[in-house]
Amino acid sequence: MKKILITGGAGFIGSRLCEKLYDKGYNITILDNLSPQIHGISKSSLLKKVKGKCIFIKGDVRNKKDWEKAMKGQEIIIHLAAETGTGQSMYELAKYNDVNIMGTAQMLEILANTKHTIQKLVIASSRSIYGEGKYLCTTHGYIFPTQRKELDMDNGEFNPKCNICDSELSLLATDESSKIHPSSIYGINKQQQEQMVMLIGKSLGIPAVALRYQNVYGPGQSLSNPYTGILSIFSTRILNGNNLDIYEDGLESRDFVFIDDVVDATILGIEKEEANGEVFNVGSGVATTVKEVAYSLKKFYNSDINISINGKYRLGDIRHNYADLTKAKHLLAFSPKFDFQTGISSFVDWVKTQEVKEDKYDKSITELKLKGLIK
Question: What is the pLDDT of residues 47-68, one digit of tens each?
Fold first, then answer.
């Protein structure tokens, strides 16, 4: 079978992908720097999962020599390695640009300037490139709202309004042709990564695929990183006996997609020729509110913590975004298998087997407040 390099392969998505590709007979190499924010300071449990199923190289995507070592003899690259916190990206700009943009540029420069054996590129993009999702105005048709006004949100008006007539909008599923207007540095990074890979892939004649992941969750997700993954953040707070404060009115929504569905979609992107040169949404196709997430977790953990809706908001946060999966269903024959309640049940069962992690959420919120990003 073909040789595959997975950058960030010891992470949440990468380790599960490695397991499934190993079962399919692929020869796998992982390049990962084992970031303490994701893996903790002790040996990564995710790395233990893939031990014996891959060649592991500890290295940094910003280092050209690490790339050259990892890419030698490979036929497919799945580029997952990235800094991922949207809030954190707003004040650690140099780090995010260095890892996400320059790290990707190192890979593409090697492909452009040296002999290699790479036959396909898959880049992990993100729903964050869309910013706000797609909406309908009864007067002006499809609308892709600009960033919400602070004055409106101060008055408890959290839903986006028509850019033209300021009227209420109806939420629609976001398709791949929707406007690209990220509202965070992380989103800008993912847009640039996607564009770079698709452009250079085309110019070099290397088939490239971009997968715009929605909010991925499931067993193996970091429970110690306070910057990404609302299910992990809420779970860690609940298990520490801490109450949940929900921003806005709790009705803001996201598309939560289970890890196994994401991995299945990624493998289809690798194996199907119909994917070549295309971008795809990867999600559940369902909008789930933050309030529903909180109360579902409280129920599954049989917890007595309090859940409050605080009306605060974070600058740059979007209101809604859920995926239109028509293209992925048509070209990749991808359909998610896990609904939210099934997926969250599996996630909670796994969390209960893990050591309770220190709750670092309040510290992360303090940082965002100091930077003026929470109102």
Answer: 778 888 999 999 999 999 999 9
Q: Answer for the pair 210, 194: CB distance below 8 angstroms, yes or no.
A: yes
Of 190, 176, 348, nearest in space to 258 by CA: 348
* Count of helices and strands (H, E) across the chain: 15, 16
Read off the pTM.
0.94
Which residues sit opposite 57 in a β-bridge?
31
Handedness of CA 364, 293, 173, 328 (dihedral sign): positive
Range list of β-strands (E), 33-71:
55-58
**Would the CA dihedral through 243, 228, 60, 48 be positive or negative?**
positive
Please tell me whether residue 214 adopts helix, strand or coil conformation. coil
> Which domains occur in the chain, in start order?
3-133+174-312+321-370 (3.40.50.720), 134-173 (no CATH)
pLDDT in tens, 245-279: 999 999 999 999 999 999 999 999 999 999 999 99
Q: How crowded is the C-beta side of 211, counted as CA atoms within 13 Å?
A: 28
Cβ–Cβ < 8 Å for 265, 228: no
Q: Quick one: angle between helices 12-23 and 259-271, nearest 10?
A: 60
Contact (Cβ atoms closer than 8 angstroms) between residue 78 and residue 7 = yes
* Spatial separation of the C-alpha atoms in residues 14 and 50, rounded to whole Å: 9
In terms of DSSP bridges, do strands 76-79 and 3-7 run parallel, antiparallel, or are they unpaired?
A: parallel
Q: What pLDDT digit, counting tens, does each position of 199-236 carry?
A: 999 999 999 999 999 999 999 998 888 777 899 999 99
Say if residues 86 and 128 touch (Cβ distance below 8 Å): yes
- Phi, psi (degrees; rounded to nearest 5) at 130: -80, -20
